[in-house]
Write a structure and sequence with these properties.
Alpha-Beta Plaits; 46 strands; 6-stranded mixed β-sheet; about 30% strand; alpha+beta; ATP binding; about 20% helix; DNA primase, PRIM domain; 5 domains
Length: about 800
């Protein structure tokens, strides 16, 4: 069991999240975890629009309610008491004294806001200046608010009229369907006028439209005059007022978003508000109409331009930086530069420029070497593809070619440390490399850094310790241990294992061997697969630190539901992810705990020959004082009471162990007996039956089998227990495995009639009522895939 809430790591920050399965939008079933997931994913588009602005929040602590019964909400300006100390903040003077507002510049702050039910994020049209005071607005906004009897189509008509006027003023407005009823128009400003001056301009714009189109629009605030018209609200340009930020969720009955749109979309007579899922899909397709309004920092290129003569060098000389970039996935280039002496230039995308380092010896080929890197001035984004000869006498004279280029998945980006996985072009010299840049001296341009190639998976596997009868180095190159396994049994048999029972909860997760060495935890599944990168809260910087030089632990990776119960279905959200960005987002929505229950090696000493009781005592010493997400659970001494309690709390069951037993790696031993409250069976997927109705285009049911002496034996199908995400993931993994013929015999004609067969490579797990006399699973329900198991390991549970 775990206490309510989990401490998770996001962007290098630790924060507690709670009640992730709480339904916030009752009409759609949207949960708090999904809201946190949305804000984590939309951050690259949202954060540039919030940066430098005080954020006023609208909070719904009990959910948004329904259309007929909307829930209470409240606005907050002052930063909440108990806010994490790392949340940036800035004061604004009010008539009753100063108030401290949060600045939302990073993903951890977004996640914290979602955790406290701050669903709507409202900001002014100005940013703080260098002195921490409200600056001049860098954009204007016109709110097109439909009166009674008016829909989005009429708002769009008025928006097009306003666009014509604004374009004539030299402005290029962007429409945003507000996520509520109407449309907002935004246009970027040079920042030369005050809020009062901009308000006066937009007010005059509203009056012009009202004068020319009195049947369509009004600039009068009185509600009695809005019937059948669009109200042109110019007042939100007042320096003391705020507007819902583009890409913010709305607290309506549905999870609509203040969604930036294209002008072509506004021509659609069926124009409607967009949900958070639709907005994320647009983001994945590269649609971001607001990118033109992202802040640009042209001063970043001042040093670059000052060193070059545009008339003499073929290097790119853009007038301004590119739109600001955000997020973990960025572009990079490494150039081979034959200047006075050969060196290499490493450049990484950030804030619309390429942050650059000169690396005399290039990228280290092994993790045992560090190379000097010297920071140079930022270069324009056009340098990603630059190759050519810089003339003699010019800065950097010599030939420059692209050595390799690609994308980098960033793990850390600070002013003194950068870590990421760099993936070059196909067939390029870099391949994939996890690199770290660490500043050692100075700041900014000409500061000294070390470029280090970090150990990849193969390096770590070679250095993984393995228990031996005698002390050994933590870097000994030996294979990972396979976990000891339990046999099925009955309570009577379990009680006979030892006169003094030792009972543990049977955790509904995936088994993992944890190897602690060199100050870092590595995780390997039962199959030996390295799953370290999938669980950064257990393995990355900021994860719990064991007070030992070296250790090997046996445990279970578990995800808990909101009632504190292990949930294998929730763990499915994490088990199959491999991309760092996807993993970091899901860490917030689906945190995990490593339940440590055995210690196999400690500081070079093999413990597998010691009695369980002694191993556990040493384990508790090692894990004492660690906070979540590493826990050592209690042990019970009453089989019947523990089994009854596990059933009452909806747990999978218990494991009864002989407290004097030694650890037998890879063996199924009668010294460990598992007692289950529900029947479960691992199965091999052999086919798909297509979905119909709501599931059309996806999976209706899966056809299942288990190995037998005569080959695969059909055991029925399963069509319940799936989430939409499970169905998408299953279809993606099964589609490449399609084969024209059934991989087994004996499938009933009805089940085989429309089956799509697949190679029997994926293992899953179902819970079921019982076996029929002819060996078919009855009342089966899908639990999830078991990537830690192979088809050969599947056996019929008795």
């Amino acid at each position: 069991m775990v206490a309510d809430g989990q401490v998770v790591q996001v962007g290098g920050r630790r924060l507690r999240v709670t009640n992730l399965e709480k339904v916030v939008y009752p009409e759609t079933g949207t949960t708090k975890g999904e809201i946190i997931g949305y804000y984590s994913q939309i951050a690259p588009l949202l954060l540039p629009l919030l940066a430098g602005r005080p954020v006023t929040r609208k909070r719904w602590v009990d959910g948004v309610g329904t259309t007929d019964a909307p829930a209470e909400a409240f606005f907050t300006k002052q930063l909440e008491r108990g806010a994490p100390s790392w949340v940036p903040r800035q004061e604004i003077m009010h008539s009753d004294g100063p108030k401290e507002y949060p600045l939302v510049d990073d993903v951890p702050t977004l996640v914290w806001l979602a955790q406290i039910a701050a669903i709507e994020l409202h900001v002014p049209q100005w940013r703080f200046d260098a002195d921490g005071l409200p600056g001049k607005p860098d954009r204007l906004v016109l709110d097109l608010d439909p009166g009674p009897g008016v829909g989005l189509a009429q708002c769009a008509e008025v928006a097009r009229i306003a666009r014509g006027i604004l374009t004539g003023m030299g402005l290029d407005p962007v429409p945003v369907t507000s996520g509520s009823k109407g449309i907002h128009l935004y246009a970027a400003l040079p920042g030369a006028q005050t809020s009062a001056e901009i308000s006066a301009v937009v007010k005059e714009l509203a009056r012009m439209i009202e004068s020319d189109h009195p049947d369509l629009a009004t600039s009068v605030m009185a509600k009695v005059q809005r019937g059948g018209k669009v109200f042109l609200d110019w007042s939100q340009n007042n320096g003391k007022k705020t507007t819902i930020s583009p890409y913010s969720l709305r607290g309506r009955a549905h999870p609509w978003v203040a969604a930036p749109r294209t002008w072509e979309e506004l021509d659609d007579p069926a124009l409607r508000q967009l949900s958070m899922h639709e907005v994320l899909e647009r983001m994945a397709d590269g649609i971001d109409p607001m990118s033109a309004l992202h802040p640009r920092d042209d001063q970043l290129l001042d040093a670059y331009r000052s060193k070059r003569d545009a008339e003499r060098t073929p290097e790119p000389m853009p007038e301004r930086a590119a739109p600001s970039s955000a997020g973990e996935t960025r572009r990079f280039v490494i150039q081979e530069h034959h200047a006075r002496r050969l060196h290499y230039d490493l450049r990484i995308e950030d804030r619309g420029v390429l942050v650059s380092w000169a690396v005399p010896k290039g990228v280290p080929e092994t993790s045992g070497r560090n190379h000097l890197a010297v920071m140079t001035e930022p270069h324009p984004m056009e340098y990603l593809t630059f190759a050519g000869t810089i003339p003699a006498g010019e800065y950097g004279a010599g030939e420059m070619t692209v050595w390799d280029t690609g994308v980098v998945e960033l793990e850390k980006w600070r002013d003194d440390e950068v870590i990421g996985t760099f993936v070059g072009r196909e067939g390029g010299p870099l391949g994939s490399a996890r690199l770290a840049l660490i500043r050692t001296e100075g700041e900014g341009e000409k500061s000294s850094w070390l470029l280090h190639r970090m150990k990849d998976g193969s390096d770590r596997r070679q250095r993984r310790p393995h228990p031996k009868p005698s002390p050994a180095s933590a870097s000994s190159a030996e294979p990972t241990l396979s976990p000891m396994l339990a046999e099925n049994g009955t309570p009577a048999r379990a009680k006979s294992v030892n006169a003094k029972p030792w009972v543990e909860v049977k955790w509904d997760g995936i088994r993992a061997i944890g190897t602690w060495a060199n100050g870092r935890m590595l995780l390997h599944a039962r199959s030996g697969t390295d799953i370290t990168a999938r669980y950064p809260e257990l393995t990355a910087d900021g994860a719990p630190h064991l007070p030992a030089d070296e250790a090997v632990i046996d445990g279970e990776i578990v995800a808990f539901d909101d009632r504190g119960r292990p949930s294998f279905s929730r763990l499915q959200n994490r088990m199959h992810l491999t991309k760092p960005r996807e993993i970091e987002r899901e860490v917030v929505r689906t945190p995990v705990v490593y339940i440590a229950f055995d210690l196999l090696r400690l500081n070079g000493h093999d413990l597998t020959g010691l009695p369980l009781e002694q191993r556990r005592s040493l384990l508790e010493d090692v894990t004492a004082g660690l906070d979540a997400p590493v826990q050592t659970p209690p042990v019970f001494d009453d089989v019947d009471a523990a089994l009854a309690a596990s059933s009452e709390f909806g747990l999978e069951g218990v494991v009864v162990k002989d407290r004097s037993s030694r650890y037998r790696p890879g063996q199924r031993s009668p010294a460990w007996v598992k007692l289950k409250n529900t029947l479960m069976q691992e199965v091999v997927i052999v086919g798909i039956r297509p979905g119909k109705g709501d599931r059309e285009g996806t999976i209706g049911s899966l056809l299942l089998a288990v190995p037998s002496p005569a080959g695969l034996r059909y055991v029925g199908r399963v069509g319940t227990g799936f989430t939409d995400r499970m169905l998408r993931d299953l279809l993606a993994q099964l589609s490449p495995l399609r084969v024209p013929k059934a991989p087994l015999d004996g499938v009933p004609a009805l089940d085989a009639s429309d089956a799509q067969w697949v190679r029997p490579e994926l293992v899953g797990e179902v819970e079921f009522g019982n076996w029929t006399p002819d060996g078919i699973l009855r009342h089966s329900r899908w639990r999830g895939l078991r990537p830690d198991k192979t088809p050969a390991e599947v056996a019929v549970e008795s």
